[in-house]
Amino acid sequence: AQSVAQPEDQVNVAEGNPLTVKCTYSVSGNPYLFWYVQYPNRGLQFLLKYITGDNLVKGSYGFEAEFNKSQTSFHLKKPSALVSDSALYFCAVKNRDDKIIFGKGTRLHILP
Amino acid sequence: SAVISQKPSRDICQRGTSLTIQCQVDSQVTMMFWYRQQPGQSLTLIATANQGSEATYESGFVIDKFPISRPNLTFSTLTVSNMSPEDSSIYLCSVETGSSYEQYFGPGTRLTVT
Q1: Omega into B85 within 30° of 0, i.e. cis?
Q2: Do A6 and A106 contact (CB within 8 A), yes or no?
Q3: Which residue, A106, A65, A86, A77, is CA-closest to A15?
Q4: How many angstroms separate the CA atoms of A58 and A76, rounded?
């Protein structure tokens, strides 16, 4: 069965510092991995995805994520955090023939 | 990508009544999904709605409670029937476009049942 884990309910980072939001997954077959962001009172917005190819994928708003097959991880990163990055972040996983599974979410607070 | 709109954006309803939520997409899509989300929590898939076939419901969700229509490739409705306070939640429509696998979400409908 597919599953995705976001071990941190909340991450606090000072503005200008690098940020990491962690995600690990379990899926049979080749994983398709995604990050979504939800700003207050908004729907989810797609940030980036890994399907195949280069393990480092770049997405919107300067975010990137690294697919690590041996550690079954897909951590979200950004070199320099902005206050406007404060939001709820969801990692998601699926394989080709199954539905997408979302993690429980990590609330990111960027401190001015 | 896809641009998705939902109506209504929010509503307050009385126990025992029904509410129909509309989802409109700016392009033709095969797969549409309906989710429920408690504020600040993860998403729970209610059902998958493909045009031309019956919706497929997830465990814990039944057609009598959450009937879904999918009359064409750009539109779907979800009805929350015989509502109780436990149905208070945010309901999200989403679509998966082509072979890209990512989903795009509507802004959500915030439902409060009193």
Answers
A1: no
A2: yes
A3: A86
A4: 10
User: How many angstroms away from the CA of A99 is the closest CA of chain B?
Assistant: 9
Nearest to A4 by CA among A70, A68, A90, A87: A90
- Under-50 pLDDT residues of chain A: none
Residue B22's pLDDT is 98
| Inter-chain contacts counted by CB atoms under 8 A, chains A and B | 44
| Positive or negative: CA dihedral A29, A32, A33, A36 | negative
In the Cβ-directed half-sphere of A30, how many Cα atoms lie within 13 Å? Answer: 5
Chain-wide mean pLDDT for chain B?
93
CB-based contact A108:A39 (threshold 8 Å)? no
Check: CB of residue A66 under 8 Å from CB of residue A56.
yes
The torsion region of residue B100 among left (phi > 0), alpha (psi -120 to 50) and beta comes to alpha
- In angstroms and rounded to an integer, the radius of gyration of the C-alpha atoms of chain B is 13
Chain centroid to CA B16: 19
Put simply, the answer to whether B108 touches A88 (Cβ < 8 Å) is: no
pLDDT band for B32, please (50, 70, 90 cuts).
Answer: very high
